[in-house]
Amino acid sequence: MDIITCHLNADFDCLSSMVGAKKLFPEARMVFPGSQERPLREFLKAFPMEITKMKDIDLSQVTRLIIVDTKDPERIGDFKQIIGRQKGLQTFIYDHHARRPGDIAATVEVVEDLGATATLMAELLRSKNITLSPIEATILCLGIYEETGSMRFSSTTDRDLIAAAYLLRRGADLNIVSTFIRPQLSRDDLELLNELIASLTELIVHGVRVKIGTAARENYTGDAAFIAHGIMDMEDIDAVVLILNMAGKTLLIGRSRVAELNVAELMQHFDGGGHPAAASATMKETIIDIVKEMAIKILHEIIRPEKVAKDVMTSPVITITLDSTIKEAEVLLTKYEINVLPVIKDAQYAGIISREIVEKALFHGFRTSKIDDFITTDAITKPPGAAIAEVEAAMVESNQRFLPVIEDGQIIGAITRTDLLRSLYEEHIRSSRTAPEHYESKHPTGRSVATIMRERFPAYVYKILQTAAEVAEETGVTAYLVGGSVRDLLRGEQNLDIDIVIEGSGIGFASALGKILKGKVKTHERFQTAKIFEIKAYDCDDFSIDIATARTEYYESPAALPHIEMSSIKKDLYRRDFTINTLAVYLNKRDFGRLIDFFGAQRDLKERTIRVLHNLSFIEDPTRAYRAMRFSERFDFRISKHTERLIKTAIRLNLFEKLSGTRLYDELLLIFMEADPIKALKRLDRYKLLSAIHPGLRFTREAAATMFQRVRETVSWYNLLFREERIDIGVLYLMALVSGLTDADREAALQRLSTPEVTKKHIHSGLAKLKEPLYYKDPVSVYNYLNGTSLETAIFLMSIAEHDEKRKSISRYLTEHKYLRPELRGNDLKALGLPPGPIYSEIFKAILEEKLRGGLTTPEEEKAAVISRYVKP
């Protein structure tokens, strides 16, 4: 038996979603798990529908349970009894609420970030070309209009509007919708409204004004949710919480119009749910005063304090002293890619100077003049505790793009227009709704990925990150998870290279965290980095974490190594190679799991694009071109046209000639370590990045690709043997890459790459074997040919062997003969009366050759052969 159900105290979004699900599952029965709101009851009186009563359902016969508009097991009544307990039960969920701990794990789950579940159902029906009758379209419209407040709630999306338009074309009747969505207040409603208004008490938490109303009714059958909306419209408040005792139960209703208070979070403490702006909960009848006290206590815990300047500012900031020259100011502005410099005198803030002023001063010939005569001393500043609204007003009214944050006369940070816009945007997203945690969220920043972290990281990694959050709070720093682990988290893949960046002292944080994790800490003072390893806590001895202090960098010349200085997380992320690697996640407790995306990384992940952050990226570090090819092929991403153009510019400017061989060598090794390096090598050749290493390096011939493919296949074959001796992939692929060069060109290419001498020797000696003939039909000849060569040489020779018999002979050497030795030892020969001397080597060589040909399989046979040939009777 198939059942379609929803949450307790069902509303129009429940009914409309159930009707939509019924179109998808025609044989299913619609069942309300409990009571319904009054407008819904009145609608069903006017438009009767076939709805099965809960008492008529045999739960043991339910094989498929389709749940709409909720995922909370506590809100589906008696159906909770069969969730996770009934064998063979399939559970389908269609919902628009964000997932939270304890939600039902469904067989099939369709959850979208929409204003109403009815919108989701309308989209599904439309995509499947399922016909709707006018009354069905009207019912779906009722759900959308009710849940979005007739398209007025901030949770409304463009898809809700499109779905409503589609339903109107299918014959939805807005006269019916308006009749039931905005009901007239009855006498009972008015009496309850008056009682609630008279009981309202005001609570102010972190500047958020909340009014709490209480009332009791024996037989109230009205719509208390509609009354809550009415109170919000009448009162100048940020939120309202109503507590009603009625008909043997206690009903809580919450409404909020500010991001600081998420009423869904409040209702979760009473086993309810909903949205940040509208939520409710139902309990067994409880003393109102007790519930009110609990609500007040919870409100103090969950209302987020209003953002202030220090929450938004960039810190630390680059400054300049008052006695500096205009030219020195220009150097700093260019070096750090900034537009404004705060000016300091005796460690105290003195004013600001902008790039525009500096350029004009240079134009007029004031190159060596002191900046003292050019600074702005009356720029508006704010203390760290200033409200964001105050900061916004100051910056807009004064048209000021850079606002210093001052404490005790010293500059501790700065707020730019970008910082302000991002903060306002994040608040807009938070106030809209809690974004669902899936890859294609349309809101690029501010959303939480804490649930994804918990689901996709091993339990010990998640615990370590939570511990890091606690240590960050205790040490007064801000911690961020950054790098490939965050990128791959959003790509749906697991990456356990955990990198944490600290705004503050990274080494101090690492020391404190290392103690708690019972791990060893290795620090690098120059770069303010640390590694925690051999972690005893959480049973992860072989796990390590990299810690770094937030840094910025500048390059004194193209392709030079960067100079590193402490900075903010934004500047730290800006120095990364590509946008997809600039994501970060807050780890501090207040915002644990909140995603940060300054540079459009999520957009590029969704569009599968490799994009640099700025136009000088390849000029500053040309090795990024090699990384672009590597990431592009690893993820099957395209390189943006602009990024391609910048790579070609770097090649035209001969910037790769300035790169050290070591850096080129390291990048090539990373490419060789990819699962399929062939594609990346082809692209490197197409962009002439191989010839940038040596003019003779090419990968355009089909033969080259075929050779590399054979090498790759041979490596896979060898790895399946599970031998202790492992292949050095870097040496092997480098040998293959330079195999087509002359001896002189090969030496020049290896020299350009600063190839280690040992590796160079392996490659030269291995490729020299190509000039020697191999008599592959004789196992002794094969052994003598390969013995003493590196494993990589043998694998390479096997890969390029021109026919199967030759490959088989090398394969046999690797699997059987490479480690073959005589069983007899020197003492055994001595016991036979043979005096030590050169004769021993001759004997062992003869035994080995015989064994290679398949003879002398036991020690006894070896002994007998020695006696017959070398021992005199």
Q: Helices, strands, pairings?
A:
Layout: E1 2-5, H1 12-24, E2 29-30, H2 38-46, E3 64-68, E4 90-95, E5 108-111, H3 117-127, H4 134-147, H5 158-169, H6 174-181, H7 187-199, E6 201-205, E7 208-217, H8 224-234, E8 239-246, E9 249-256, H9 263-268, E10 273-274, E11 278-284, H10 288-302, H11 309-312, E12 320-321, H12 326-335, E13 340-345, E14 348-354, H13 355-363, H14 388-397, E15 402-407, E16 410-416, H15 417-432, H16 450-456, H17 459-475, E17 478-482, H18 484-491, E18 498-503, H19 506-517, E19 520-524, E20 529-533, E21 545-549, E22 551-554, E23 563-566, H20 569-574, E24 584-586, E25 595-596, H21 601-606, E26 609-610, H22 617-620, H23 623-635, E27 638-639, H24 641-652, H25 661-672, H26 677-686, H27 702-719, H28 729-738, H29 743-752, H30 757-768, H31 779-786, H32 791-800, H33 804-817, H34 826-831, H35 838-852, H36 859-870
Helix pairs in contact: 1-3, 1-4, 3-4, 3-5, 4-5, 4-6, 12-13, 17-19, 23-25, 23-26, 25-28, 27-28, 27-32, 28-30, 28-32, 31-33, 32-33
Oligomer: single chain
Q: Give the tally of β-strands.
A: 27
- Rg over CA atoms: 36 Å
Summarize the amount of helix as a percent range: 40-55%
N- to C-terminal distance: 94 Å
Give keywords.
873 residues, alpha/beta, 7-stranded mixed β-sheet, 27 strands
Commentary on this structure:
The protein has 873 residues and is an alpha/beta fold. Helices cover 44% and strands 15% of the residues. The chain has 36 helices and 27 strands. Strand 13 and strand 14 (348-354) form a beta hairpin. Helix 4 packs antiparallel against helix 5 (158-169), helix 4 packs across helix 6 (174-181) and helix 31 (779-786) packs across helix 33 (804-817). The longest helix has 18 residues, at 702-719. The chain starts with a strand and ends with a helix.
